[in-house]
Amino acid sequence: MAIELVPLPLPASADASKLADFGREVKGVNPADVSPELFKEIEQALYKHGALLFRNANVSPAQQYALTKAFDPQSKSYGHGNNKTGETKKSILHPDLKTIPSVPQVQLIGNGTVYNHEGLAEAKLKHPSHTTFHKTRVSPEDEEKGVTRFYRWHIDAALYDLNPPKVTTLYGLSVPQGPGQLCRYDDGTGDELEVPLGTTAFVSGKVMFDILPKELKSLAVRSKVKYAPHPYVWMAPAHAMSTALGIESEGLEMPLEELPPWEESKIKVLPVLWKNPATGDLHFQVHPCGAMELLVDPLPEGANREGALYPDGEHITDLKEVRELLYKMQRPGIAPSLVYPHDWQENDFVLFHNRGLLHTVVGAFKPDQVRAFHQCNLAASDEPAGPTHEDVKAYA
Ligand SMILES: [Fe+2]
């Protein structure tokens, strides 16, 4: 049985030609109960389209965990680890997550207070807001008028010790409805995007790579990112840029010697481009906030050196330079026309390829707007594959 795939409705702001392959609604399939044959089709569709939507789903935490795990049967623990130890208390992610007691790999996220939920008597949830993370903020007057920002463009990943999850599932149980908001980039470009209230915004890592000029493709295909140890603790004192695509270089990161104990061997060094397991496409997959250093390989033999950046390779340790290079490569990929802002309906179940796109929370809720989502992703059993020798030859 072939599954029925329908393109997701794109907003008027979207460049339909660039997003033609991105996202599909899966019709007539219950994500709570997927046979092995059906799973293979879903897996291929997911890697091809980046995000799959199942409407009117009814999925228990155990079923959500089972479907998420099917993508990586050897994975076990939540993407950031299951155990909340003392050292993660200082992490900027700590307040956003409440674990479901019976299935600790599934997290309750959202806004407002939720009662008697899956064994949690009372859970106080807070929708993350740019006002506590960005260096600057939308003025309270503009916020009142519905102006907002992206919160933090990211990949779901611990980026230390654990491998980036292959997929994430997001299940919208309570979805407050309200007027849309205007997401402003506030970076001097005038870029802005009309978004549904509380949207999750997605951009394709494949498109982010495809639109780069030749010299930046060459840099990307030759580069690896070294992430900071305990990156979410490291970045906690720092402030993000107004586009939510990385951290302002103000020297505020926690000094490495003040971080919880860490080991060099657990630091993640990951390629900038991750190879899609189904299509072979290259996706620009960098979590800019956690990036600390850039390791650039020299051009391969016989490559044209004209206009090439770092033709002889470079280990870039200057944090500002690292961030500026990454920003130059990633900012084009979050242009308003390339963003898919999902318009959440109650009981939407979204499955996304965490190794093929970037996403972010957007917008702000009032305290009485109760939003409850179940989220699951699992630290992967392997590291993402980078470009092959042929890829390097083709793009360097
Ligand atoms: Fe996320």
From TrEMBL:
Pfam families found in the cross-reference section: TauD
GO molecular function, one term: dioxygenase activity
Keywords of the record: Dioxygenase, Iron, Metal-binding, Oxidoreductase
Residues covered by the TauD/TfdA-like domain: 18-376
Gene3D superfamilies: Clavaminate synthase-like
Cofactor: Fe(2+)
Family: Belongs to the TfdA dioxygenase family.
Protein name according to UniProt: Alpha-ketoglutarate dependent xanthine dioxygenase
Source organism of the structure: Gymnopilus junonius
